[in-house]
Specification:
651 residues, alpha+beta, six-stranded antiparallel sheet, 30 helices
């Protein structure tokens, strides 16, 4: 795991010391690679490359980057891990003379022998790659299939910038950090900025499963370079969505084989390795298979909170004890958790407001004290149908799709005719006559959310409403127009009969990539910790999508195959419980210990001076939240994280 960066300065002003600039950019990524650093420069074209290394495979100097190919034609930067690199070595010509054992050396040799696209299709790993062809004067940028590793890039005038994080680009005096209000509007809808956009004008995220080549011999041609997809989830689904497993038992067995292979492969490391453990289905499955494949107790890590509804540590402790792992848990006080908040603008370097970023950073910090690599259970919900909203959404849509528009609109008006607080009182009064499964928390908020959904006439709009924080962010962000995203682009919606599978496919290409993987990568790398995700191996994803949805969600229970695999290692009663997120008591904090901090940021004059948001709309939500009339915790956290990031940007 590493950090990479660079820039191409076309006809740059000679008053700038370009070598000094690339060192400054590179050192901004020291947290991603504290073990080694290096730069490289093509003085003919003023292309500069920088790399920070976190040594995982081959700890010797043979893994130093930037790295030349043996033929000296290519220079490569790699951020990530190529899990099948030893298999690739065996495929290459036997006369290859290896200097070391790093996957970077394997990778650049593959590019020499097979070219870019053929090599990328063979890789199983997480990566962002920069490859410079000295002979053709072509610069190529590449990103892994799900976007586990970040890669920003973009032209500003005749200068090209790229890097693992925006803080590296921002340290370049040639870089212009003008905020893109249209991207900001997307942030308030999704609590993150989805690829290919970024917070800055002219800078994009390379979309997952793609590469881009710039021919720097011709600046105009280079600027018009087109993205090439080498891997696409929709294409994979269409190819492998042909159930071939004759029975549920066969489906479970094939998934077990593929998952075990992925876990075993991702345990390869020359440094201490462990795992995050929440005690849920996904992380427990990963840890159980790690322990199966380990000769010694696996190191596992959990963060706990004293608030019961947010505490998973007790479940993780029981699972760890049963599996015999070397378990470390840390109970965090609200004061300790809130100390993370001042770090967030620097950790994420563009607005990001998934509040589970706080415990994710804390568990990463805990793990980094003992290990350098940690496996996680992320991706299991999207691949195996684990989210509650899949079944709930299908039920709601099956009813809504058949209702006339007039009925839906009238029903929506009826729901919003009563305030959320009135709905809460009605539900409280009638709780003993309402069936248990309909005794929701915050029923008033849910009634108003349902009203928003009732207005939607297409599955795409229905899903967009479900996945949105601010339903009309253009009315909040001054002078903004939302960009088209994967969700709002009809061409990105795969044509599947199953409503649930369509949601799963879209989640895997949006929420997983733009929220979860960003959260984990930045939090872990801020602690110089490599996080690996076994559920996202290409072989396992293909296997999962070859399994009928009826096998993944069986009798109304999601992730059925994973449960059956896990029960071979952990008793059912240690696992089965209502699903809960990895969060913090945000609403209570905003009314309590965070009130003064939040109030300073949400001050009307401060909001007006920043000039991006409509103050009155923000203040309405803030006052309703403080009074207890509504729980606007997530909407307010969006505002706080942007405005706090903006202050950090200006300081």
């Amino acid at each position: 795991m590493c950090g990479l960066t660079g820039f191409y300065a076309h006809n740059s002003d000679r008053k700038f010391n370009l070598d000094h600039i690339i060192w400054s950019m590179t050192n901004k990524l020291e947290h991603r690679g504290p073990d080694d650093s290096g730069i490289w420069r093509d003085k003919e074209l003023d292309l500069l490359l920088g790399h920070r290394r976190l040594s995982i495979l081959d700890l010797s100097t043979a893994g130093h980057q930037p790295m030349y190919s043996a033929c000296k034609r290519f220079v490569i930067l790699l951020n990530g891990e190529i899990y099948n690199h030893l298999d690739l070595r065996r495929e290459l010509h036997s006369n290859t003379q290896w200097k070391g054992n790093s996957d970077t050396e394997t990778l650049v040799s593959c590019f020499v022998e097979w070219g870019i696209e053929h090599t990328l299709k063979k890789l199983d790993g997480m990566f962002s790659i920069v490859l410079w062809d000295l002979q053709e004067k072509q610069l190529s940028l590449m990103r892994d299939p799900f976007g586990e590793k970040p890669l920003y890039y973009g032209w500003q005038g005749d200068n090209l910038f790229f890097g693992s994080e925006l803080k590296a680009l921002n340290s370049n005096p040639l870089f212009q950090n003008e905020i893109d209000r249209n991207s900001l509007s997307l942030f308030f809808r999704h609590n993150c900025i989805p690829a290919p956009y970024s917070i800055y004008k002219g800078i994009k995220k390379l979309i997952p499963g793609s590469y881009l080549t710039f021919d720097l011999k011709n600046i105009n041609k280079a600027k018009s370079s087109k993205i090439v997809k080498f891997w696409d989830l929709n294409t994979e689904i269409e190819t492998f969505k042909n159930p071939s497993f004759g029975s549920l038992e066969e489906s479970i067995e094939n998934i077990a084989i593929s998952l075990n292979k992925s876990v075993k492969q991702q345990m390869i490391s020359d440094v201490p390795l462990g795992a995050f453990l929440s005690g849920g289905i996904d992380s427990s499955s990963v840890v159980a298979l790690m322990q199966k494949n380990s000769m010694s107790p696996v190191k596992t890590f959990t963060i706990g909170f004293n608030e019961n509804q947010f505490d998973e540590a007790v479940y993780a402790r029981d699972v760890a004890k049963h599996l015999g792992t070397e378990h470390t848990e840390l109970y965090v006080s609200p004061e300790e958790a809130m100390k993370v908040i001042p770090l967030l603008p620097s950790i994420y370097c563009e607005p990001f407001s998934d509040s589970s970023q706080i415990p994710t950073y804390l568990v990463s910090k805990l793990a980094s004290e003992q290990v350098t690599v940690s496996l996680s259970g992320d991706g299991g919900d999207e691949i195996f149908g684990g989210y509650n909203r899949y079944l709930e959404g299908q039920s709601a849509w099956s009813v809504l799709a058949g209702l006339p528009k007039t009925v839906k609109r009238f029903s929506g008006k009826m729901l919003t005719s009563l305030s959320p607080s009135v709905w809460d009182e009605l539900f409280k009064f009638a709780k003993y006559v309402i069936p248990r499964k309909y005794r929701f928390s915050s029923p008033g908020d849910k009634a108003h959310k349902l009203a928003n959904v009732l207005h939607q006439d297409s599955l795409m709009d229905f899903y967009n409403t479900l996945s949105s924080h601010w339903q009309e962010p253009e009315s909040l962000v001054i002078g903004s127009t939302e960009y088209v995203t994967n969700i709002t682009d009809k061409d990105r919606w795969i044509n599947l009969k199953s409503f649930i599978e369509r949601m799963m496919a879209m989640d895997a290409q949006t929420y997983l990539t733009d929220d979860i993987l960003v959260k984990v990568d930045r939090a872990a790398m801020a602690c110089s910790l490599e996080s690996r995700i076994p559920f996202l191996s290409k072989d396992l994803v293909r296997t999962a999508w070859s399994v009928p949805i009826e096998h993944k969600i069986y009798n109304g229970i999601g992730k059925w195959p994973l449960r059956q695999i896990l029960y071979k290692y952990v008793p059912k009663d240690l696992i089965e419980r209502p699903k809960q997120g990895f969060g913090v008591p945000l609403g209570e904090w905003l009314r309590g210990p965070l009130r003064e901090w939040a109030g300073d940021i949400l001050n009307k004059d401060s909001l007006a001076n920043s000039g991006y948001l409509v103050p009155d709309e923000v203040l309405r939500l803030w006052n309703e939240h403080l009074s207890g009339k509504r729980n606007w915790q997530y909407h307010l956290w969006d505002v706080l994280m942007f405005e706090f990031w903006l202050r950090n940007e200006k300081s």
